[in-house]
Design goal:
Elements (H helix, E strand, L loop, with lengths): L1 H7 L10 H4 L5 H4 L1 H4 L4 H22 L1 H7 L2 H9 L7 H24 L10 H18 L4 H28 L1 H21 L5 E4 L2 H8 L2 E4 L5 H10 L4 E5 L12 H8 L7 E8 L5 E7 L1
Parallel strand pairs: 1-2, 1-3
Antiparallel strand pairs: 3-5, 4-5
Amino acid sequence: MFLWNLKHVGTLTFTPAYMFLFLTRSFPGLSAFSYVLPTRVQEVTRLYGRDILEKWLSQVWVHYKYFFTMANPIVLVGASLTMTSTLTRPQRVLRNFTAVLYVSLVAVDSLIHWDNRYLLPVIPFAALLGFEFLRRLLSTAPLSRVAKALTVGAIATFVSIEGIDFFYQSSKAKALELATVQVNLQRTRFIIENLRPTDVVLVVDPGLVAWETGNTSVGMPKDLETPTTIHSRYVKFNTMILDERRPRADLFSYSEDWYRVAAGDKTFLGFQREKWVTSSSGQTMVLLRDA
């Protein structure tokens, strides 16, 4: 991360890992951070240290839901109890490695990776410890063979039932996934066929546009005021790609004004509707250009 920043910004810059791609030519909106924010770690820490700490603490706690979703509680309890158990040397090496990996992910990766699954690399190693603990516990338990077999069957059921349900739900959603892929292909085809090589695009998904066309892309802010400032001070985008209606899963709560601009009911910086396409989902994608 630091080597990348040294090459592209000119100094060691404290930035999240997702900035790697956004420091390239195709993403001027986010690479502008290197111009408006301090580039020294000490200065960033002085100005934003408290915000970073609060973000880190909230992320560490909130993201445990993915950790517990992917690892069964029975296995996790077994893995935790190995911390107080007498182990062989290879088992101690595995336990110590798992503990160090977990601490390093919590202390470092949670600051760098904003994806909320950063703890998942610990799960395979924790699972090995948990299964080994359960094996030793059952092998020394004063139970009959029948009782041990029933206990093993019950534990196996509890451990695997969530995974089985996951694959079952995935198979049920396969038709929806295929429909989603088809819609994305239609939208991608529209973008490729209608963008010019010199277009600078304001769009919700700048990664898609930059990847498919190589055009410079700017991520669309929630409101209309911020892109007005971007257009006047930083990046003179001349093209916008908008949707006419709010999607069902609106994760970012974009202003209703954007949908009015797409539908032609509101103006924005002189941009005018030029082309549009309606996908199989019923959503209409609109390309607007600066008049």
